[in-house]
């Protein structure tokens, strides 16, 4: 029997949509075209198949997501992933937190950061560089945002330049949107 997952973990749960996803085999040409650039270019997930009900939006969303999360310049990929994790913790998106925590762990080859975040939440204590990134992203992700000039200054103080700081804003912001979208379209399930 399946049950909804409520706790943060690096084990990625199965995401179950509330609506029937598009059937790839019978999708329209417009839906197929929109699904060509999937988030992370890893395959067509139930989430993407659900978003394919609106192919015009999906055709814009996926390339934007890929540029923000996988761009070659600016912030390191692991730090973008930490920003996504922080936003997902604030928004209680268990699915996104698991996916991006796993990616952070894979990119950094360390698990202590995510273990601290999942154990202590927004009170997690990290090294100075990662703490500035995590805190900024978390404060930016609250509603209304709690990030202030001192939070932005803390990014500069740990060595982030303007492009890196912008990348962090974008990765946090897109997850503020993505988390809320995932919550309204489905839920994470443990089989």
TrEMBL record:
Carboxymuconolactone decarboxylase-like domain span: 55-120
GO MF terms, alphabetically ordered: peroxiredoxin activity
InterPro entries xrefs: AhpD-like, AhpD_core, CMD-like, Uncharacterised_peroxidase-rel
NCBIfam families named in the record: ahpD_dom (TIGR00778), peroxid_rel (TIGR01926)
Annotated PANTHER family: CARBOXYMUCONOLACTONE DECARBOXYLASE-LIKE DOMAIN-CONTAINING PROTEIN (PTHR35446:SF2), SI:CH211-175M2.5 (PTHR35446)
Protein name: Carboxymuconolactone decarboxylase-like domain-containing protein
Upper taxonomic lineage: Bacteria, Pseudomonadati, Pseudomonadota, Alphaproteobacteria, Hyphomicrobiales
